[in-house]
């Protein structure tokens, strides 16, 4: 089932029954605004997001502003149960699989897929573990297994809206960037980014 669109890219749910579909402002400028598919359960960012006409698709929540300058729906957090198999949100070619440190502290995995419907863009997924794909591999929306969601030892913004403390996979559709993963610097503190 589709949950969002950006330009010619359609994003599909990572699993048949997610706990929740949430949107928020992306941390970095390459992320494009996503057009949610489905119906609004609640909009907590009314200054930046105006409720569209409901369509066939999942219910979703637009989370409150993080004070970032980017669109209210430039990032999606798909909340899943901890051992859910995460599947590809789009059909395309894997252009990157990389380990990095979230907030310069927590191990995480980043997967980037060039969608076949709009090869000038990249679909980025983070907060993954047990990644099963590699660069150059072709993946198919809703079919190809990417890995599992990664749980972190801290509270996430999604926990303000959904009970259970379940992990989520963060997804963005981005213009390609020379600096795909935020670099750590002494001035960067936990809580900035993600």
What labels would you give this structure?
mainly beta, disordered C terminus, 39% strand, 194 residues, 3-stranded antiparallel sheet, globular, 11-stranded mixed sheet, single chain, 0% helix
Percentage of residues assigned to helices: under 10%
Uncertain residue segments: 187-193
How much is the radius of gyration in Å?
15 Å
Number of beta strands = 14
Give the overall shape, derived from the CA principal axes: globular
Number of helices: 0
Span of the ends, CA to CA: 25 Å
Order of helices and strands: EEEEEEEEEEEEEE
Proportion in β-strands: 35-45%
Average per-residue pLDDT, rounded, comes to 92
Assign the structural class, choosing from mainly alpha, mainly beta, alpha/beta, alpha+beta, or little secondary structure: mainly beta
Largest sheet: 11 strands, mixed
Question: How would you describe what is shown here?
Answer:
It contains no helices and 14 strands. By secondary structure, the protein is mainly beta. β1 (2-6) and β2 (9-12) form a beta hairpin.
What's the SSE blueprint?
Layout lengths: L1 E5 L2 E4 L7 E5 L10 E2 L2 E5 L15 E4 L12 E5 L6 E2 L4 E11 L3 E10 L6 E8 L8 E2 L5 E5 L18 E7 L20
Parallel strand pairs: 3-6, 5-6
Antiparallel strand pairs: 1-2, 1-4, 3-7, 7-14, 8-13, 9-10, 9-12, 10-11, 11-13, 11-14
Describe the structure in brief.
The chain has 194 residues and is mainly β.
